[in-house]
Amino acid sequence: MKYFIIISLALFISFSCSTQTNYNSIEKYLDNSISVDSFNIPLDKEQGYFPLQKFKGDSIYVGYGKFHIDWYSKHLRAMKEPLLFNKKQNKITYRFLWLRTFHNPVSIRIEKVNDSYSITWKLCDGEGGYEPGKLIINQTKKLDKQTWDSFNKLLKKLDFWDLKTFEVDIPGTDGSQWILEGVNNEYYHVVDRWTPFGGNFFDCCNFLISLTDLNSEDKDKDKY
């Protein structure tokens, strides 16, 4: 009986890990039919920046996935950001999209290419809850390995790859969407949260904000 329980538990753990791995496998989302330029920016203005299946689930909102993908995509498109899920690339990328209702939209992308590390941040002059406006800040700087490792420790503490893409809750009318994507040669994932107040997800994204040279007003996490 004891032997049976041990075997059953091992099979359950193995199945759970396999399911999660398969769910985040980039193989599920690769799409060579998407037309992109040399920077992997979609040529079709209607192309979404996220796989729709990532936003399907137990949402209480009808059309949640399509609505949010369209909303987030128009901001990333205005920032001339690349797609992350459509094809494999020889680098590791995490991108934080920060959409405060009445404040300028921000994207922050941190990358590792071989032994080189960098962070790129962009800001548009529109409002995160409405239209993105024009790109007015586009800056990149190099990072050291220690900074990259610090960020990865936060990701591990967050358990990023095992989080659900979204939580079923009822957001307020004003606030901010925090969208964190991650991709490497094996996996792709995205996590979407509304106005986090503290916690591991907040700490992870806030670390990226702290690495930029955005002014104090643009970094204001309480400004909606």
Q: What's the quick description here?
A:
With 224 residues, this protein is α+β, with helices and mostly antiparallel strands. The protein has helices at 2-24, 64-78, 145-158, 200-210; strands at 92-100, 106-113, 116-124, 135-143, 176-183, 188-194. Strand 1 (92-100) and strand 2 (106-113) form a beta hairpin.
Describe the structure.
This protein has 224 residues and is an alpha+beta fold. Helix content is 28%, strand content 22%. It contains four helices and six strands. A six-stranded antiparallel beta sheet has the order 4-3-2-1-5-6, sandwiched between helices. Strand 5 and strand 6 (188-194) form a beta hairpin. Helix 3 packs antiparallel against helix 4. The longest helix is centred in the first third of the chain and has 23 residues, at 2-24. The chain is globular and about 40 Å long.
Q: What topology does this entry show?
A:
Layout: H1 2-24, H2 64-78, E1 92-100, E2 106-113, E3 116-124, E4 135-143, H3 145-158, E5 176-183, E6 188-194, H4 200-210
Antiparallel strand pairs: 1-2, 1-5, 2-3, 3-4, 5-6
Helix pairs in contact: 3-4
